[in-house]
Structures are given as C-alpha cells and as structure tokens.
Specification:
With about 140 residues, the chain is mainly beta. It has one helix at about 1-10, and strands at about 35-40, 45-55, 60-65, 70-75, 80-90, 90-95, 100-105, 105-110, 115-120, 125-135. The protein has 1 helix and 10 strands; from the N terminus they run αββββββββββ. Strands 1-2-3-10-5-8 form a 6-stranded antiparallel beta sheet, with no helix packed on it. A 4-stranded antiparallel beta sheet has the order 4-9-6-7, with no helix packed on it.
C-alpha cells in the first residue's frame, strides 16, 4: 500500500487516480463494481468509492483495518487536509508527533502534508471513511 501512495505522490496525483474508473455525474455506487486495494496479509482494504475529481479536489474511500495492522500515509502535496470518520472499532491516527485515538462515531481532521499513519490496536476490524481534500495550488 505504501508503494502505491509513494507512486501517487511521486507523480503528484491523488491515490485514487491510479485506480480510477469512469463515473457518472449521478448514480448509486456499488462496491462490487469498484477495484479495492488489499494488503497481502488481508488486514487492509481500501475502496475508492469516489476517486479523485479535479473539479472538486477530493477523493473519498472506505477502509477496513484489521487488528494489529498499521497503514502508513505518505505526505500529500502541501495544503492537503484529511477527514476521517470511524464507524466500527478504533483507529490510532499518528500525525507528525501527535497520536489521536478515534473511536466509533468520532471523526478527526488533520493536515495530510506530513507523515501520518493509521493503526488498529484493538481486537476487531476498524472501518472508517477517509476523505482527502487537495488544496488548489495557485503558485
């Protein structure tokens, strides 16, 4: 997974651009029609329900993070902000030097342009939605 993030960041493109499928302006999105990205050990699954859309500057995906699994997040372009909402379990979000425990029915917002990670130290699979907003750079 970290390799895919590195490739996306190296090309300065959003993560889901690498798994993008054609999409309609309006419609129901079914997980069975999306290519999910899974870790070799099966403890991490990322499903890009809404791949990057340049008109909106964001991407949104669901994540299932198994017990004891840590997912590393590479720094995104400057000004990127991540929003995470936990629906099942708990996730430790490490952001720079800070660590935040985000429990079921809680959310966190943080800048995504520094190293960050997500860790499940619980006994059940954590499920959350992650939205990544990419700031428009007008440099």
């Amino acid at each position: 997974m970290s390799t895919i993030w590195k490739i996306a960041n190296g090309f300065k493109v959003p993560f889901s651009r690498l798994t993008r499928l054609p999409e309609n302006e309006v419609g129901v999105v079914d997980k069975k029609n999306i290519i999910s990205i899974k870790s070799d050990d099966g403890l991490y699954e990322c499903t890009p329900f809404f791949p990057f859309d340049a008109r909106q500057s964001f991407e949104m995906f669901t994540v299932a993070l198994g017990p004891g699994h840590k997912a590393l997040g590479e720094p995104h372009p400057k000004g990127t902000v991540e929003y995470l909402i936990v629906f099942d379990g708990e996730v430790l979000v490490e952001h720079g030097e800070e660590i935040h425990r985000v429990k079921r029915d809680q959310a966190i917002k943080f800048t995504g342009d520094i190293p960050h990670s997500y860790y499940n130290d619980g006994k059940e699979t954590a499920r959350y939605v992650n939205m990544v907003y990419y700031a428009q750079n007008n440099d």
